[in-house]
Design goal:
By secondary structure, the protein is an alpha+beta fold. About 55% of the residues lie in helices and about 10% in strands. The protein is built from 9 helices and 4 strands; from the N terminus they run E-H-E-E-E-H-H-H-H-H-H-H-H. Helix 1 links the parallel strand 1 and strand 2. It is globular, with a radius of gyration of 17 Å. The mean pLDDT is about 95. The protein binds glutathione. The site of glutathione has 13 residues, from helix 2. Glutathione (GSH) binds next to helix 2.
Length: about 230
């Protein structure tokens, strides 16, 4: 059965940009399961039982939350490549996720949140501005990192721990990617889709980003962005 995969979309519904949804897209590709993308916009939220994306519909059930989806996919499809093969792999992915939340997300948001408000449809943008400005207590234009080089330098500082890890390993998960890799990848792909490439191509993280982007027939590398759609 084909899994229905709900992905956050811009006004141009070919552009899929959410950091959490990118984690799930990579997870679905890794699991080699059949899935079909359903574009979802913020304005559809009231009619959507689960309120947030990513969400998947599989085998008569709707599952939301990127972490829950990853665990569900491994449990439901154990014969397909595992995202987290055991409790240690789960703990490792949680660690990467916590590092992202603490050291990467705030800078990423300063690069991506305002651009998101510029590419979504007007009804979604009204909702997005109201909820995000209430959350940050500021106008999104005030959060925006106007100095791109400074923002990239700040991001690189947050990525230092991954830069060091990837000096001796092709992937955060080792010889091949695990869900830990997709956790960080989703955050960087968010900026890449809505704004600009956020990392130096020659860095270890930059090479790792390209390595993952090229996987699965270059699915992520070929994804439309604001710069190439
Ligand atoms: N913890 C959730 C977070 C998902 C999330 O916040 N998704 C955002 C898009 S990036 C969303 O759907 N927001 C709906 C809203 O703000 O109403 C996950 O990992 O899936």
């Amino acid at each position: 059965m084909t899994i229905q995969f709900y992905e956050l979309a811009a006004e141009n519904t070919d552009i899929k940009f959410s950091p959490f949804v990118w984690r799930t897209r990579m997870a679905l590709l890794h699991k080699e399961v059949d899935f079909e993308s359903v574009a979802w916009q913020f304005r559809q939220r009231d009619d959507f039982e689960h309120k947030t994306v990513p969400a998947i519909y599989d085998d008569g059930k709707m599952i939301s939350d990127s972490w829950e989806i990853a665990k569900y996919l491994d449990a439901q499809y154990p014969d397909k490549p595992m995202l987290m093969k055991d409790a240690e792999a789960e703990a490792h992915a949680q660690l990467v996720s916590a590092i992202c939340n603490n050291l990467v997300f705030a800078t990423a948001a300063s690069m991506a949140i305002y651009p998101v408000s510029q590419i979504i449809d007007s009804e979604s943008a009204a909702y997005f501005l109201e909820t995000r400005e209430a959350k940050f207590g500021k106008k999104l234009s005030e959060i925006n990192a106007d100095d791109k080089d400074q923002a990239k330098a700040n991001l690189a500082k947050g990525l230092a721990v991954f830069e060091a890890t990837l000096a001796t390993s092709d992937f955060l998960g080792g010889k091949s990617p695990t869900y830990a890799d997709y956790t960080l990848f989703g955050v960087l792909k968010w900026i890449d889709v809505v704004a600009y490439r956020p990392i130096d191509e020659a860095s270890n993280v930059g090479k790792w980003f390209d390595r993952i982007s090229a996987m699965y027939s270059g699915d992520a590398a070929k994804a439309p962005t604001v710069n190439n759609s």
